[in-house]
Amino acid sequence: MTGTCEDPQPRVGFFTDTSVCIGCKACEVACKEWNAIPDTGLDFTGMSYDNTGGLGADTWRHVAFIEQRKPLGGQDTGRSTVDLGMPAMPGQEEGSEFRWLMASDVCKHCTHAACLDVCPTGALFRTEFGTVVVQEDICNGCGYCVPACPYGVIDQREDDGRVWKCTMCYDRLGAGQEPACAKACPTDSIQFGELDVLRARADERLAQLHDAGIDDAQLYGRDPDDGVGGTSAFFLLLDRPEVYGLPPDPVVTTRDLPTMWRRAATAAGALLVGLAATFLGSKR
Fold this sequence. Notes:
The chain has helices at about 25-35, 115-120, 145-150, 170-175, 180-185, 195-210, 255-284, and strands at about 10-15, 60-70, 100-105, 125, 130-135, 155, 165, 190-195, 220, 235. The protein is an alpha+beta fold. The longest helix is centred in the last third of the chain and has 27 residues, at about 255-284. It has two domains: about 10-110 and about 165-250, Alpha-Beta Plaits; about 255-284. The chain is built from seven helices and ten strands. It is globular, with a radius of gyration of 23 Å. Strands 8-1-10-9 form a four-stranded mixed sheet. A two-stranded antiparallel ribbon has the order 2-3.
């Protein structure tokens, strides 16, 4: 299924509204079931109720649980550390407010994707939907794309070294269906659709939260002029990106490659001129 000049395929993506995420992990389960991803077990990490730790070759969706002893904006949550049987943090009063920040993370499908730039085999490619997909039968396991990703999303499997990540259910998109994770989300925290529509919806939702006194709410990955040209998977966060383990100012890691190659070519040219001059001078 490919777009044509007369009827181009609109770019699609995810808008994840973390303010309504309940941490049910239905997206993780649906992702694993549809994509036949190996089971990673139930080894709890000690980080709240998180048992997957982070994105990886066998975890294409990861729901983070972040515990904070603070209220949600200016609202009264009705929950305190006393209610939950938890001790107060140093410097905080006993019974201070408590909240969880929950967020389902995924590959960002960057506009300027460094993983595409460094892949030597073409295993990574840009689809007609604007997403970035790995063709596992072409991947040679070189691993160049792993450090190239500014979000630390891409990972290699231990058995054969090939890389795996979210495909945004490329097979489902081709059949006119939404990705499995968005389909399974019971609260519409994960919303799928055309990027322009999602961005407008995100702006409206952000304004609602600010009007409700939740001043820390912010959009992440929404700006098409950021360091990666915007992403196809962006988020509404209730705190700073670093709190969620996201880089505050992501930059495409290959941005300086053209300049580096030009300088290398200039240096090589100067060296050749110098060698030629030396050779000609010695003949005289």
